[in-house]
From TrEMBL:
Protein purpose: Catalyzes the interconversion of L-alanine and D-alanine. May also act on other amino acids.
Protein family per UniProt: Belongs to the alanine racemase family.
Gene that this polypeptide is encoded by: vanTG
Organism: Vallitalea longa
Residues binding substrate, per UniProt: 469, 651
Entry's Gene Ontology molecular function annotations: acyltransferase activity, transferring groups other than amino-acyl groups; alanine racemase activity; pyridoxal phosphate binding
Name of this protein: Alanine racemase
Catalytic activity: L-alanine = D-alanine
Length: 710
C-alpha cells in the first residue's frame, strides 16, 4: 500500500505564495499594464483557491470533528500571532483613529483581516466550519452544489458586480453585505467551494492521466484569461478575485499536482505559510531601507526588481524561521565533534555500518526486507545521521520506539516506511497521519480507539506469542480478524517478537519454536477466514542469527546492525563477521602521582598500596559510562595498553591506574569502547563487566557527547 507523498502540492505552495507576492507588488507594471493585469489579477488568482483546496484535500477526506477543531485551533493561533505582529503597522496607519472603531475591528477580525492579506486566515476558518457542516448534513455532492451557489453570490459582488449594479433591488441587497464585509471574497462565499472540492478529490477513487489534467488546466486557464480580460474591458468588476472559470481551472490544476511524482519536502509547508504571513513586512522593510539609502528608484520604482527582492528576502527569512522552529522540536544535535578540541566524543564508522548491512542481508532471502531499528537515537549512534546514510545505501524501512523519533526522521527527509514499535497516546494520532508513520496496534482495545478517530491510519498489528509485553493474544483469533475489518485501519503488517531468540539452550529453543508455531497457526486461521495477509515479520537480530530458516517479509534488525554482537561467544547458528560501528573516546584531564595509603575518588574505595601514577579521564556516568565499572570492574585503552578504572566512576570523570604506562600525558586520547593499537574493547565486554547488555550501554550514551562520523 504505497502512500503518495504529494510532492507536487508541496512545491506548488511556493509558486502560489510567489503569486500572492506578485499580487501585492505588481511586478510587470512598468513593462506592460495588461501583462501585469493578466499575471496578478487573473493567473495569480489560483493561489488562494489552491491553499483552500489543499486544506480541504487533507481535512475533508473523512469527516472528523476532532480534526476540524484541531485545524481551527492551529489557524486561530496563527491568526492571533499575525494580528499582534502587524499591530504596530495598524497603529502607524492610524487604524485606531477611525470612526466606529469597535464595529470595524469586529468586521476586520471576522471577514477582512486586520491587514489586507490576513483576510485569508479567518476565511479558511469560516470556510472550513461551513464546509464541514454542509458535508455532514448533505453529503459531498449536495454540499458542493450549495457551495457553488454561495460562490455565485460572491461572484455577483466581485468580478460580476456589473450585473448587480444594473439591477437595483439586488444592488440594495449587496449594500447590506458590504456593510458587514468589504468584499464578497471571504470565508462564506469564496472558501467553501474550494475546500469541498479538495475533499471530494481526496475521496474519489477514479483518476485520469496527468496529461489529461494538464491539457484541461491550460485550456481552462486560457479561457479564464479571456473571461478576466473581457469583464475587465466592460468594467464589470468591483473586485477581481473570483471568476467562473476559476473552479474548473482549479479542478484540473489540483489533479495535475497530486499526480506529480517526487519527494515531498515537509519544510516547504511551513515556509510557504510563513512567507504568506511576513511578506508585507518585508515590503515595508524594503521601502524603509530604500528611503533611508535614497535608492527608491532602484528598489521601489522598478516593479520587477522590487518584486524579485521582496520574494528572495521573504523566502530566505521564512525558510530560516521554519528551520528554526523545526530544530526546536527535534533532537538536539550537539554539532560536530572535533577530536582535537573535545574532551570526550563518539565516533561512528559508516563503512562498518555498510559492511554489517551487507553481511546481514546475506542471511536473508530476497523476499525479506531489511527493517533498520533506529530507536533510542539508533542505539546511541545518532538516528538521523544513521538513517540518512541507510537511506542512501538503499534501506527503505525503519523502526522507532516512539512517535517523536519517527517525526524527527521525517523532518530530516528520511524516506520509506517508519514503524512505531511502541505505544502512542491517541491524542497524537493526527501526527501519525501527518508524518506518514505506521503505528503498532498494541491490543484490541487500542485498535478500536484508532479506528474511532475517523481517518485512515496505517498500522501493523502486534501479536503476543509468549513475551507478554504488548500485542493482542495470538489465541484471540476473532478479535484479531475483526481488526482487519475496521474501516479506518489500513493494516499493512502483522508481527510478533521473540523473547529468548538469543539463547541456544534447548528449552529456550523450544520456547521460541512454540512462539513461531502459534504465530504461524494464527496466520493460517486468518487466511481461512478469507483475510488477505499483509506483510508479516517476526525476527529481530538474534532471530536472524539463530533462526535463519524462517522467511518472512521483514527482519527488524537493531543491535546486529551496529555490530555489537559477539557471534562466536554467543554460539549463534549463523556466524557473521560483524564490525562495531561505534567507538567511545575521551581525553586525559591530568596525570598525577599518589603516595602509598592515599585514596582515590568518592567513598575512598581505592587506597594505594604503593606509590603510583594515575590519570583522570574527562568522562563519567553522565556521559553514559556505567557507574558499575567502578573499582577495577572496567578497563580503558591508553597508548594501546589496557589499564583498570580505580575508585568510583564520578558523574563527569573517572580515574585509571597508569603506573605501567608512564608516558601518558595530559590531553592524550583514551578509548573506552573501540580499538587502540592492537587491542580492542568491545561493548559486549563493557556490558559483561557491569552485568548489562550492549543495547543498554549503547542506548544510554548521553547526548552530552558529540559525534564524529567517519
Ligand atoms: C528493539 C526491537 C527490535 C530490535 O531488536 P535487536 O535485538 O536490537 O535487533 C526488534 N523488534 C522489536 C519489537 C523491538 O522492540
Amino acid at each position: 500500500m504505497n502512500k503518495k507523498e504529494y510532492a507536487g502540492i508541496d512545491y506548488f505552495r511556493i509558486i502560489a505564495v510567489l503569486l500572492v507576492i506578485a499580487i501585492h507588488t505588481s511586478p510587470l507594471l512598468s513593462i506592460s499594464r495588461i501583462g501585469n493585469f493578466i499575471l496578478t489579477r487573473i493567473i495569480g488568482r489560483v493561489a488562494v483557491p489552491f491553499f483552500f483546496m489543499t486544506s480541504g484535500f487533507f481535512l475533508f477526506n473523512e469527516l472528523s470533528k476532532r480534526r476540524l477543531y484541531g485545524f481551527l485551533q492551529k489557524i486561530g493561533l496563527l491568526y492571533g500571532i499575525s494580528i499582534i505582529l502587524y499591530l504596530p503597522i495598524n497603529i502607524y496607519n492610524g487604524y485606531f483613529a477611525q470612526d466606529d472603531l469597535l464595529l470595524n475591528i469586529l468586521k476586520d477580525i471576522i471577514f477582512d483581516g486586520t491587514l489586507y492579506h490576513l483576510w485569508y486566515l479567518p476565511a479558511i476558518m469560516i470556510g472550513a466550519y461551513i464546509s464541514f457542516h454542509l458535508i455532514k448534513r448533505l453529503g459531498y455532492k449536495k454540499a458542493f452544489a450549495l457551495a457553488i451557489i454561495l460562490y455565485i453570490i460572491g461572484l455577483l459582488g466581485d468580478s460580476y458586480f456589473g450585473l448587480t449594479r444594473s439591477f437595483k433591488p439586488l444592488r440594495g441587497l449587496y449594500e447590506y453585505i458590504f456593510m458587514v464585509s468589504d468584499f464578497t471574497r471571504n470565508g462564506v462565499f469564496f472558501a467553501p467551494v474550494f475546500l469541498i472540492l479538495g475533499g471530494m478529490i481526496a475521496k474519489r477513487k477514479k483518476q485520469c492521466s496527468i496529461q489529461f489534467y494538464m491539457i484541461g488546466f491550460f485550456t481552462t486557464l486560457l479561457l479564464m484569461i479571456v473571461e478576466g480580460l473581457y469583464i475587465n474591458g466592460i468594467r464589470f468588476q468591483r473586485h477581481d478575485s473570483m471568476y467562473i472559470l476559476l473552479i474548473p481551472t482549479m479542478f484540473f490544476l489540483f489533479n495535475m499536482l497530486i499526480l506529480f511524482e517526487g519527494k515531498s519536502l515537509i519544510i516547504l509547508r511551513k515556509t510557504a505559510m510563513i512567507i504568506y504571513i511576513i511578506h508585507p513586512m518585508v515590503i515595508i522593510g524594503i521601502r524603509l531601507i530604500a528611503k533611508l539609502t535614497n535608492m527608491q528608484s532602484l528598489l521601489i520604482d522598478n516593479n520587477l526588481v522590487h518584486y524579485i527582492i521582496v520574494s528572495i528576502l521573504s523566502c530566505i527569512s521564512a525558510l530560516s524561521i521554519a528551520m528554526f522552529l523545526q530544530k526546536k522540536c527535534v533532537y538536539v544535535d550537539n554539532g560536530k565533534a572535533e577530536k582535537d578540541k573535545d574532551r570526550a566524543w563518539i565516533e561512528i564508522n559508516y563503512s562498518n555500518l555498510k559492511h554489517n548491512v551487507t553481511e546481514l542481508k546475506k542471511t536473508m532471502s530476497d523476499k525479506c526486507e531489511f527493517m533498520a531499528v533506529v530507536k533510542a537515537d539508533a542505539y546511541g549512534h545518532g538516528a538521523i545521521k544513521v538513517s540518512t546514510y541507510l537511506n542512501k545505501i538503499g534501506i527503505r524501512s525503519f523502526a522507532v520506539a516512539t512517535i517523536d523519533e519517527g517525526i524527527a526522521l521525517r523532518k530530516h527527509g528520511i524516506i520509506g516506511d517508519i514503524l512505531i514499535l511502541g505505544y502512542t497516546d491517541v491524542s497524537r494520532i493526527q501526527d501519525i497521519i501527518s508524518f506518514n508513520l505506521i503505528q503498532t496496534v498494541v491490543d484490541y482495545e487500542y485498535a478500536g480507539k484508532l479506528d474511532e478517530y475517523g481517518y485512515s491510519i496505517e498500522v501493523h498489528i502486534k501479536i503476543d506469542t509468549g513475551m507478554h509485553r504488548i500485542g493482542e493474544n495470538a489465541s484471540d483469533i476473532n478479535k484479531i480478524s475483526e481488526m482487519f475489518h475496521y474501516k479506518n485501519l489500513n493494516v499493512s503488517g502483522i508481527y510478533t517478537h521473540l523473547c529468548v531468540a538469543d539463547s541456544v539452550k534447548e528449552q529456550d529453543i523450544k520456547f521460541s519454536n512454540g512462539q513461531i508455531n502459534s504465530f504461524n497457526t494464527l496466520l493460517d486461521k486468518l487466511k481461512v477466514k478469507g483475510i488477505k495477509l499483509p506483510k508479516v515479520h517476526v525476527q529481530s537480530s538474534y532471530g536472524i542469527l539463530n533462526y535463519p530458516e524462517l522467511d518472512y517479509n521483514y527482519a527488524r534488525i537493531g543491535i546486529a546492525l551496529y555490530g555489537a554482537i559477539d557471534t562466536v561467544r554467543d554460539k549463534t547458528k549463523v556466524q557473521l563477521n560483524l564490525r562495531p560501528v561505534l567507538s567511545l573516546r575521551a581525553k586525559v584531564a591530568l596525570v598525577r602521582n599518589i603516595n602509598k595509603d592515599e585514596s582515590v575518588s568518592y567513598g575512598r574505595t581505592f587506597t594505594a598500596k604503593k606509590e603510583m601514577l594515575i590519570a583522570v579521564i574527562a568522562i563519567g556516568y553522565a556521559d553514559g559510562v556505567p557507574r558499575n565499572l567502578s573499582c577495577e570492574s572496567g578497563n580503558v585503552l591508553i597508548h594501546g595498553f589496557r589499564v583498570p578504572i580505580i575508585g568510583r566512576v564520578c558523574m563527569d570523570q573517572l580515574i585509571v591506574d597508569i603506573t605501567d604506562v608512564p608516558q601518558v600525558k595530559q590531553g592524550d586520547i583514551v578509548t573506552l569502547i573501540g580499538k587502540d593499537g592492537r587491542d580492542s574493547i568491545y561493548v559486549t565486554e563493557v556490558a559483561n563487566n557491569c552485568s548489562s547488555i550492549p543495547n543498554e550501554i549503547l542506548s544510554r550514551l548521553s547526548c552530552r557527547l558529540k559525534k564524529i562520523y567517519i
